[in-house]
Amino acid sequence: MTFPFTKNIHYQNQSLSIEGCSIEALALKVNTPFYVYSQARLLDNITACKAAFDAHNIQIHYAVKANCNLHILQLIASQGIGVDLVSGGELYRATKAGVQAEKMVFSGVGKSRSELIQAINMHIGQFNVESAEELALLATLAEDTSDNTSRKLQVALRVNPNVVVNTHKNITTGQKGNKFGIDMDLALTLFEHYANHPSIELVGLAMHIGSQIFEVAPYREAIQKLRLLATKIQEKGGNVSVLDLGGGFGINYGENTPLDFATIAHVIAEETKGFRGKVAVEPGRSLVADIGLLVSRVNYVKESHPTPFLILDAAMNDLMRPALYQASHPIKEVIQNTTSATRSYDIVGPVCESTDIFASKYPLDTNIKAGDLVTFFCAGAYSAVMSNSYNSRDIVPEVFVNGQNATLVRERITQEALLQYEVNAKPL
Ligand code: LLP
Hints:
Layout: E1 9-12, E2 15-18, E3 21-22, H1 23-29, E4 34-38, H2 39-54, E5 58-63, H3 70-78, E6 82-85, H4 88-96, E7 104-106, H5 113-122, E8 126-129, H6 132-145, E9 153-158, H7 184-193, E10 200-206, H8 217-235, E11 242-244, H9 261-271, E12 278-281, H10 285-288, E13 292-302, E14 309-312, H11 321-325, E15 331-333, E16 342-348, E17 357-365, E18 373-376, E19 398-402, E20 405-410, H12 415-423
Parallel strand pairs: 4-19, 5-6, 5-12, 6-7, 7-8, 8-9, 9-10, 10-11, 11-12, 14-16
Antiparallel strand pairs: 1-2, 2-3, 4-13, 13-14, 13-18, 15-18, 16-17, 19-20
Helix pairs in contact: 2-9, 5-6, 7-8
Bound molecules: ligand LLP.
Ligand LLP binds next to helix 10 and helix 11.
């Protein structure tokens, strides 16, 4: 395991810091568990991402689902990046964060009628449609709401290129049998069918083949399939002026070599050579994962044979990835273990589920004790966003750090607050 320390998250005088703030000091102000993010790291990631993709004229739409905190979205919007959305809620948040409608792409396999209407009324830049049925509904709604002055809805068809991706089975999305995308043959038929529709214009093809991918080969294969399809569509008189290639670029959770922006941008540029139109990507995890930590305290060191349990105050409801995908997040003591004597622990949370396990036989300080702080690395993506209040636990707060300034950007959502939705039961 190599620790993904960065210049923004590292030990200073044996105490873990995020930019100019000590985690220990933050933990005295915000009760554990809490998430904390580095603004400098986010800006560095955005800069690297823009440099890599701008060099090849590839547009970037941040996949909001990875982390939808308003303050993160505001920062991303301020850097001129567009967004990829999958719900009316994300559309609402992105709007509040100041993202221009033109820079919004609406993806998602099951958009509801009301979500589609919301997006039509917002005049968003592009719809990525995932079924013939959704396209039919969108066409009807577009006709109903058309005021003759607005341009036709710009629609890309998300296809399922049926490529094998070497990642966790729960996060592959571009293989036959996955619920996502339209069969390539059907996409061709749909382009013909909607050729002269008065309110919608099929402008391109989209794909997203999965997440936490390290190899470029499946991207190459999928893009080649999309281009073959684009040629067929064009031969039949259709217009493919957008190729939206999704996200999925793998990051280092301690044991991986990341698929860096420059590498994948270069591969995409090679595979889209000669394509006249807009090429876009939708990175999520790779922009935000390594900006964040989850900070937790040890509740108990429970002696047990052969492995003692380290029972934390964070649980699967705060960070679901280990329980859901057997994901491993590097874990470190906040006060550095200077003796380097370690012992193996099973690191678990207090939730009443056997899957509430963060790590098995994991080496940490031999002398770790109740009250000590530990932190999970790479917890900026698919972490706070997936938290919930199972076992009637509070929803975990989020802190944003900029140099020596720390801001509480999401308050702890307490049971008292949550109960407000239940106490005044209304007869229906
Ligand atoms: N575009 C679309 C249409 C997507 O569905 C996704 C992610 C992305 C872009 C961004 O993918 P990324 O660059 O973040 O890999 N909760 C899982 C990951 C689920 C990803 C869902 N779709 C996890 O924690 O690993």
